[in-house]
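FAQ

Q: What does a record look like?
A: Structure on top, sequence underneath. For example:
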């Protein structure tokens, strides 16, 4: 499924939302939505992507005036649900809550993922960003990012790092760290986020460079230590922890994201209706407070075209890391 030229032309010329709406027939604007919309979460219930979907579903339903239903279709690290939506009718009623796992890591590391994250989707909006963080067990001697790197260089292979699985974003993040700093560490893959957290807390692995949201309660409790966060500014929850840019590695300042996407070929008017609705929900005081409480960075205003551009850039950046490290998902 390919993008329609009209959407790319209209958006690339900078036509505003009001101008775009005026250029479309009245019936196209009024017809959608007229029945329930399904948000497909390609992961099991209870994870960060599922929680984000459920936080947005109710307010999105109020804005659009139709029920918005969350449906979990887990499997293959998010590929099953993503492929299901890629092949769905492009009418705006079946959407996927996307993430870097399903729309970046999987296409780069799985031989038969079954979809192209850009060509097979209309990427609509960012729902939130989750800062990654370099987190180490509190019993380890290093207290700063520099001390960690110095130790790793003097003791190659002695430090183990964990991730949610081979080909996961947690692995890709550390492989990028290794390329940037020249350290050598050993990968210990776990089967998902929950076992990974258990492994970090038990000091089975000495560090991770992964989604801070899953580790934040344990950082605040002193069980693990955050040495640097991947965000534009220091986080209010961890004001003493420097950013990756502050420790000299701005190239590692790559926040994770959760987004919303429709099947490729979904009409421009529907994409814009969904985009405007998502922005209305995302900028509401209630949602901003909710995201802040959970350690999620509120999404900046990013049009569908800008969203797609960001994804394409990250595909290139992480694609180089995957090739250099020879990463292939199981």
């Amino acid at each position: 499924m390919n993008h329609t030229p009209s959407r790319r032309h209209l958006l690339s010329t900078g036509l505003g939302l009001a101008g775009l709406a005026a250029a479309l027939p009245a019936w196209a604007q009024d017809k959608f939505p007229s029945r329930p919309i399904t948000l497909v979460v390609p992961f099991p219930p209870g994870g960060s992507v599922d929680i984000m979907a459920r936080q947005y579903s109710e307010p999105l339903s109020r804005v659009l005036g139709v029920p918005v239903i969350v449906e979990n279709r887990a499997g293959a690290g998010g590929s099953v649900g993503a492929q299901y939506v890629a092949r769905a009718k492009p009418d705006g009623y079946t959407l996927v809550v996307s993430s870097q796992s399903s729309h970046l890591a999987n296409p780069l590391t799985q031989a038969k993922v079954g979809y192209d994250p850009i060509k097979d989707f209309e990427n609509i909006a960012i729902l939130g960003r989750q800062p990654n963080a370099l987190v180490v067990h509190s019993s380890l001697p290093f207290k700063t990012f520099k001390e960690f790197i110095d130790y790793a260089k003097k003791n190659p292979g002695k430090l183990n790092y964990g991730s949610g699985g081979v080909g996961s974003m947690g692995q890709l993040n550390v492989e990028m760290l290794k390329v940037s700093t020249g350290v050598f560490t050993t990968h210990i893959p776990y089967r998902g986020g929950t076992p990974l957290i258990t492994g970090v807390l038990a000091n089975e692995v000495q560090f991770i460079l992964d989604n801070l949201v899953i580790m934040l309660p344990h950082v605040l409790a002193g069980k693990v230590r955050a040495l640097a966060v991947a965000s534009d500014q220091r986080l209010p929850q961890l004001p003493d922890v420097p950013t990756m840019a502050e420790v000299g590695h701005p190239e590692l300042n790559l926040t994770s994201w959760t987004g919303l996407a429709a099947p490729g070929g979904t009409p421009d008017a529907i994409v814009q209706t969904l985009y405007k609705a998502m922005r209305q929900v995302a900028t509401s005081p209630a949602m901003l407070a909710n995201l802040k409480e959970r350690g999620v960075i509120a999404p900046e205003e990013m049009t569908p075209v800008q969203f797609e551009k960001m994804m394409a850039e990250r595909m290139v950046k992480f694609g180089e890391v995957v090739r250099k490290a020879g990463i292939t998902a199981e």
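Q: Is there anything notable about this one?
A: Confidence is low (pLDDT under 50) at residues 1-29.
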